[in-house]
Specification:
InterPro entries: ERAP1-like_C_dom, Peptidase_M1_aminopeptidases
Largest sheet: none
Order of helices and strands: HHHHHHHHHHHHH
Radius of gyration: 18 Å
Family: Belongs to the peptidase M1 family.
Distance between the termini: 25 Å
Organism: Aramus guarauna
GO cellular component, one term: cytoplasm
Structural class: mainly alpha
Protein name: PSA aminopeptidase
Strand content: under 5%
Number of strands: 0
Length: about 230
């Protein structure tokens, strides 16, 4: 109804606040998706920081209940929920989540304690969103060293979380490099487009500037339509 302009978005946010004690992954996934759409729309307004505060307020209680480590008897959906919630809090700049993500990432890079597969994407997104050129270089190094394609893809999807314009350009250049399989280039560009307001503009310009190469690479395939969609 809010999307149709029948009711105010404020009403939707009030309904969302009622879900703070919700334990179900599917519900949180839906909340996360809708808040992501709102964040994207509000990124061009003065309300962007306020929606990040709202995200932190809504997701903090469930984040504290879940914690960082699996509990005995947990199911697969609990692990998915933990990754979703920590990623959301980290991206929004929740201080405790950011600090813990940085600590665990450091241990992971130094080989002291490897991150579980469930936590890698949320931790990578968090440290990149609030990171610098050193962070990006470390992520690209991890990508190069990764034995499994699954890990390479995981890193490719989150690189677009980086915020600084010159680093966004570095990620886009990386997307067309030989380091990335041609079928995975779209994931990197899509990650940049969805990562930030600056990323959206940069990705759009990059696609236009490199349209001939991209079109020739994917002509007639579903990847070109996916690229346009993202």
């Amino acid at each position: 109804q809010a999307r149709a302009g029948i009711i105010s978005t404020v009403e939707v946010l009030k309904v969302m606040e009622a879900f703070v004690n919700e334990p179900n992954y599917t519900v949180w996934s839906d909340l996360s998706c809708n808040l992501g759409i709102l964040s994207t729309l509000l990124s061009h307004t003065d309300f962007y920081e306020e929606i990040q505060v709202f995200v932190k307020d809504v997701f903090s209680p469930i984040g504290e209940r879940l914690g960082w480590d699996p509990k005995p008897g947990e199911g697969h959906l609990d692990a998915l929920l933990r990754g979703l919630v920590l990623g959301k809090l980290g991206k929004a700049g929740h201080k405790a989540t950011l600090e813990e993500a940085q600590r665990r990432f450091k241990d992971h890079v130094e080989g002291k304690r490897m991150l579980s597969a469930d936590l890698r994407s949320p931790v990578y997104v968090t440290i990149l969103k609030h990171g610098d050129s050193t962070t990006l270089d470390t992520m690209l190094k991890l990508h190069k060293q990764a034995d499994m394609q699954e890990e390479k893809n995981r890193i490719e999807r989150v690189l677009g979380a980086i915020s600084q314009p010159e680093l966004i350009q570095k990620v886009l250049t990386f997307a067309l490099s030989e380091e990335v399989r041609p079928q995975d280039t779209v994931s990197v560009i899509g990650g940049v487009a969805g990562g930030s307001k600056q990323g959206r503009k940069a990705a759009w310009k990059f696609v236009r500037d490199n349209w001939e190469e991209l079109y020739n690479r994917y002509q007639g395939g579903f990847l070109i339509s996916r690229l346009i969609k993202v």
